[in-house]
Amino acid sequence: MSISLKSKHLIISSELVESYFQESPYVLLSYKEELGKLLISPVDNAWFTKMHKADQYFLKQRNLKGDNSTGIHALLLDFDLDDSDRDLSFSENEKSNFLSVDIQ
């Protein structure tokens, strides 16, 4: 299971896609500047939307393996974040159904 940043796109491994997003073409993203974390949730997580003022992003299949990606170029620019290609550490919040990604 992995999450990486490549060409200003968040790449989410097929295992995480299966566990959290299934067949949904969208995800919810919320950047928490004070924590340096990007929170990612399935689009049908109503609790997440209310708590984190999330925006909806398009999620598309990247390869036959089932990895998915979403473009976060605007978010990187808005918060002046490092846009270099790299692996990102993350944690899973299974109870509230979202991923917390260290983006700084």
Structure at a glance:
By secondary structure, the protein is of the alpha+beta class. The protein contains 3 helices and 10 strands, in the order E-E-H-E-E-H-E-E-E-H-E-E-E.
What is the 3D form?
Answer: globular
Mean pLDDT, rounded to whole units? 92
Q: Structural class of the helix and strand makeup?
A: alpha+beta
The total of beta strands comes to 10
Largest sheet: 5 strands, antiparallel
Number of domains: 1
Total DSSP helices = 3
Low-confidence stretches: none
From the alpha carbons, calculate the radius of gyration and give it in angstroms: 12 Å
Q: What topology, given as strand order, has the largest sheet?
A: 6-7-2-1-8
Percentage beta strand: 35-45%
Helix content range: 10-25%
Order of helices and strands: EEHEEHEEEHEEE
Our measurement of the CA-to-CA distance between the termini, rounded to an integer number of angstroms, reads: 20 Å
